[in-house]
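This part of the workshop introduces the protein records we will be handling. Each record describes a single protein and holds just a pair of labelled lines. Instead of coordinates, the fold is spelled out as a row of discrete tokens. To make this concrete, we reproduce a full record directly below:
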Amino acid sequence: MSTRGFTLIEMLVALAILVVIAGVLVMSMAGAGNEPRLRREAERLQARIDAACERAELSGRDLGLHLGEGSYAFSKRRGEDFELQTEAPLAPYQLPADIRLQLDEPELGPVVSEDPLMLCFASGERTALLLDLLAASSDPAYRLVVDPVGSSRVQRRLPDSREWIDWKAAP
């Protein structure tokens, strides 16, 4: 009776193939840098803004977005003033330490702005906003674009490019 198994050479070749595949996967994951985290933070902020604007429309009260270099918060209009919200899903949010927000004007400080820099009106309209989410200069940048008519989208720009494209359409 003869039993046939794998030879030592066959097992070593299979092991070498698995090591090469694992190495390629590790290298491709390491090259991604902060991009997945940046995209996730941009999507999170987009979803929270959309939720705040929907809440403003349903409640009949204007809501504001306050921005800092590494954080953001939402507020509800109380007469002429805005009161920061402390309950989820509109509670203040601190970004990871290596991700920062940037506006063209005004320049953001280390803490959230006293006045809202974007408004969601009870009528369903919004003020326009172009907000960049950045990490290391070697990582792609993400931009949140909020249109006054009630839509928002996330765009992506590669480090060696000046062109912003919708990230879902990006290669």
